[in-house]
Amino acid sequence: MWENLGKWLMKRFSSPLPVLFFLLGAALIIVEAVEIRLPDGTHMLRVNEFSVFVLALGIVLILAAALLQFFDRRTPQDKKSWQTDMLETRSYASLGEILQAYVDLPGGLDFAFCAYNSETYHVVGNEQLSRRLIHSRVHRNIEEQTKYYLDLAREVHSLAQSTYAAMKTLDQGNLFRLVYDMEKGGLFYTQVSDHCYVAGATVDQASMGDNTADLEMRSLVKTVEQHIAHLESQ
Question: Measuring CA to CA, which of 48, 158, 169, 224 is 20 to 30 A from 11?
Fold first, then answer.
């Protein structure tokens, strides 16, 4: 329940302050709206000056949260950074859970993929991807788009390996990151280590244009790196 509440709040608020005001306001309203059970078994609401004040304060906090959200002048990049910073501080039980957390974010990636040793993981944001496929007039369903992304992630990995082999003579380090910016969205690829690579994709060109998909992908890679480092240190 708490995880679902967190997802709901992250989709509707873009900073911690309106979230705090909303939660406090909702809590005060609920407390004052709960009936009291009397010793004789009857129920009644507390109605006195203090309870009216608390109820009014709860409503004011809810309105303040709405106004803060409405007049939020931060850039999309600032909002995305707030979302990803929260995910980077969490602990995860598996790589699949990490991918799910990032795909669940509003905006950004619709698809996330990770290959680690002999295992592969992938997650799709079904609701968001479905809307974006229709909006962008991409004539594939979710299953077809998912298969397309899975095949493309593996092909890009092979391409990155062969391209790196050809670029070794430049002596400029390893080729570890590729970005494909298309007319309708794009795809990201990052080689984390010899045993791991991560891919992410979106159908939304707006998130490519304002770099929020890129910010989300970079944060995803960072979180995957931290998780793998923890696994390999055990």
Answer: 224
